[in-house]
Amino acid sequence: MDVVASSPPPAWPRALGRSLTIVVGTALAYAVAGWLALQLRVPPDYALVVFFPAGVAAGAALTLGWAALPGVALGAIAVQILTHDAVGASWQHWGILAPAAGATAMAGATAWGIRRAIGYPSAFDEPAQVIRLFFVIVPLGALLNASISVPTLVARGIILPGDAWGQWASWWIGDALGTVLILPLVLVLLGEPRAAWAARRWNLALPLLLALLLGGSVVRLLADAQTQQLRLRAEQAGTQAAQTLQRRLDAQLDALEAMGQLLARDPAIGQEAFEDAAGLWLRRYPGTQNFTFNWRVTRAQRPHYECCDPGWPILGRDADGRRFPAPDRDEHMVITRLAPLETNIAARGLDVMSYAPLRTAVERAIASGRPQATEPFRLVQETGVQRGIVVYHAVRAPAQAHTVLGIVSSAFRMGDVTQAALDALPLQHLALCLIDLDAAPGNRRLAGADGCETADAPAALPVRTDWPLRFAQRHWLLRLQPGDGFWRLVAADARLHLSASTGFLAVGLLAAFLLVISGQRRRTEQLVQQRTLELARSHASLMQLAHFDALTGLVNRSFWTEQAHTVLATARASGQEVGIVFLDLDRFKHINDSLGHTQGDRLLQTVAARLQGCLRARDVLGRFGGDEFVVLLPWIKGREGAATVARKIARTLDEPITLHGTQVRVGASLGVAVFPHDGDTVDALLRQADTAMYAAKAAGRNQWRFFEPTMHAHVSRRLAIETALRQTLDDPAHSGLSLVYQPQVSAQDQRVLGLEVLLRWQHPALGPIPPGEFIGVAEDAGIIDRLGAWVLQTACHQFAAWHAGPQAPLLAGVRLAVNCSPIEFARPGFVEQVLQAVAPLGPLVRLLELEITESLLVQSGADVAQRMRALTERGIGLTGR
User: Fold this and answer.
1) What is the pLDDT of residues 134-145, one digit of tens each?
2) Which residue among 3, 351, 529, 592 is the one 20 to 30 A from 441 at the CA level?
3) What is the C-alpha to C-alpha distance for residues 846 and 604, in angstroms, rounded to an integer?
4) Are 44 and 83 in contact (CB under 8 A)?
């Protein structure tokens, strides 16, 4: 017996697994090293004092090859996400890819430079090699990341333009130090020659790790001290701002209560005296919009108030500041005295009880006897975008505390009040937001940028940003969000960064020294082992494009034919029967032209889905192009089995289909051929099924027929008619086409009302051909529009000639009726074609009628309706038939 040697298992799975391991391992190591480096970050800098991942990336690219670079990119993206979170910036931006690309380029360039200038595998134990590595190759490679990343972060606004050069230098130094410190550790773990690097674990790796741990601990302590100092500065600024604003708010209430006491003693104070009294407070507290005295006017007092004293109408207002006559109520609180009057005249006569938010504050002020502020709203007299509030205080008679004389109020433009109160404080680069916690959600912002009351912007440092305030029985909140500029203003000098860099530079020099010293023990025997990494090449699947129809997802002609050959070969061997159904949609061209190609495509997709629902799992449905579909029916029970499928398809396709809100009926003509009775090859069966399909179409459409040998004669005549019709349209004058004009006579007085144009064809070779036969051929062949254009043009010329001759009196008022095919009417250029044909008629065009089918009216879309309007506007009549 023959002995067949078994082939070894393929190597690509192992290579692919190793590549994936390298990518994942490099990404994890890079991310962990990045997290450790972030613990040494000196706020508020984006660049780190030392960037350990740079050494991980360079070492991985050098020892593991280019397969590590995708892992470097993934790890760099993860570190960028962590860094963005640390500095309070959004990482959901394509800009994080720039530092990732810079880190990958730096790793690849550093590894390439080492291989070119020093060589690898190498133990790096000669002083010249170490100098080239640490003082030439690594610093040059580190230039790449800083030069790519810093400009991108400046463009995004994460690094301030004024800090660009400093951040670039810090970034470059951090990457260079990180590579110098971590690359020897990576080489100890993964470097080649393996024996040379494994021997250095104790005399290189251990001292270097201890030095890194000590240096990192010192830097962490210094960074924590600076962070605490920055946090204290921010909170001090916030506390000072809150206290200053609270004092200003308390002073506003004092002013309001002083005005209330004045009005209690003299409630009938005149406008000029009121403005003099209020002017003192308005000048002292900028941002105060006005002071008002709202008279209490009862229902009985309203007529006198509006007609005599003071003699202006009492008005209401809505949320948008629109004014209207105040509705009747038991009592009104009407703004009667204002200061200053000139800039607040729009508020005079307003009944604050007519607007719910103001009425609530007024009622609370009366009930409590204390000043009460409203929710923020738009002041009537406001011309800008600032939010305003009004504080109300009840004015009572001195001897009758229960008697309310009116309400004294003061309106504030909160942006101006806040700015005036805090203008003297050093609050540069602090985003301010004043919030009313008692207001309804969505209406809490008093001052600050839109949305600041809901924004949760991260800060460069976790500091307190909210301070509570109390004003006129409401709970407010002052939010101060420090920006990058604030940290730059209050940050300490560069001594911390310089100390940290100097310390890590000393550790790097220690690493260089240890490399040279430990390399003296390197063995002379070197093991050079190269492993070829086979990367699996993924081939894009072309099956869908090569074997399936892109529109419907059905198999195409080539794949269907391939499967049909296989099925017929099996059927020949087993003596089984196979059916082929060739179907053509009856009204697809009309629907496609009238509703557009997009709806035509949807129709084909719907038809394909319905056909699939009629078939068995083993049947093969294919689309051969256009509106032609072919079904392969393996293992049927003779003609009866094929007939069952054909009937089911015909019923399914006869059901209406909804396209863009319009219901259409498409129908189909089906031809059926059965193997082996109607043919022994795929091509023969397709020809017979196609012939049977044409016979079904000639029988009235939405029909199905089995192939019969006598059908060839019918198909031949149909093809002859189509060929002759095309030739006829090229030269209609010598082809036998003619028009007859059938009179339309009134049954009452025998008067001729119109002439209906009828088309006749006496072909020289084929003889007389009835319109019912050649019209259908013209529609199926797509030349009905040419035929219709000839009929309309010829009829118009004849009608115009009669009216120009002696027959004109007999034709007075007689209309000319011309049939129009729905397919013609649906053509985009139909209107222009008609207008060109009727040009000889001149004013007689009003006697022309185009007869269209009711099906066109039922299925007409906006474009068809537009064509109808265009024709009727030119005087052309349209009638249904």
Assistant:
1) 777 878 878 888
2) 351
3) 41
4) no
Q: Residue 775 is encoded by which pair of tokens?
A: 């019209």
Q: Which two structure tokens, joined as six digits, stand for 288?
A: 């105060």
- Preceding peptide of 303 cis, ω within 30°: no
Topology alike, domains 249-436 and 543-709: no
**Domain limits, the chain:** 18-198+493-519, 249-436, 543-709, 723-880
10-residue block means of pLDDT along the chain (881 residues)? Answer: 48 72 86 79 64 83 85 85 76 80 87 86 76 78 82 78 75 77 78 75 69 63 68 79 84 86 86 86 82 88 86 84 86 88 84 85 86 80 72 84 84 79 68 84 82 63 76 85 61 50 56 57 39 43 75 90 92 91 84 79 91 90 90 89 88 86 84 90 89 80 82 71 77 74 80 83 80 75 79 85 81 82 75 82 83 62 74 79 64
Q: Which helix H or strand E contains 152, and what residues bound it?
A: helix 138-156
CA atoms within 13 A on the CB side of 416: 17
DSSP 8-state symbol, 808: G
CA distance 632 to 557: 12
Residues 6+ apart with CB under 8 A from 591: 599, 600, 603, 659, 664, 666, 859
Give residues with Cβ within 8 angstroms of 551, minimum separation 6: 601, 604, 605, 623
* Domain 543-709 part of CATH 3.30.70.1050: no
Pair 275, 495: CB distance under 8 Å:
no
Q: What is the C-alpha to C-alpha distance for residues 856 and 819, in angstroms, rounded to an integer?
A: 13
Task: Please measure the distance between the N-terminal and C-terminal CA atoms of the chain and give it in whole angstroms.
Answer: 87
Cα torsion angle, 672, 677, 678, 679, sign: positive
Choosing among 3.40.50.150, 2.60.200.20, 3.40.50.2020, 3.20.20.450, the CATH entry for 723-880 is 3.20.20.450
Q: Where are the beta strands (DSSP E) in 369-461?
A: 372-373, 388-396, 404-413, 430-436, 445-448
Q: Are 715 and 694 spatial neighbours (Cβ–Cβ below 8 Å)?
A: yes
Helix (H) or strand (E) holding 360: helix 356-368
Whole-angstrom CA distances from 654 to 14, 89, 152, 665, 669 are 58, 62, 63, 6, 11
CB atoms within 10 A of CB 820: 22
The single-letter DSSP state of residue 620 is E
CATH 3.30.450.350 fits 249-436, yes or no: yes
DSSP result, 36-88? HHHTT--TT-SS-S--HHHHHHHHHHHHH-GGGHHHHHHHHHHHHHHHHHHHT
Structure tokens, 307: 């007609």
Q: Letter for the amino acid at 761?
A: W
**Residue/partner pairs of 781-788 with CB below 8 Å, 24 or more apart:** 781/722, 781/725, 781/726, 782/589, 783/725, 783/726, 783/729, 784/821, 784/823, 784/824, 785/821, 785/823, 785/824, 785/827, 785/830, 785/833, 786/729, 787/725, 787/729, 787/759, 788/820, 788/821, 788/824
Structure-token pair, residue 57: 């990336």
Cα-to-chain-centroid distance, residue 586: 40
CA distance 335 to 332: 10
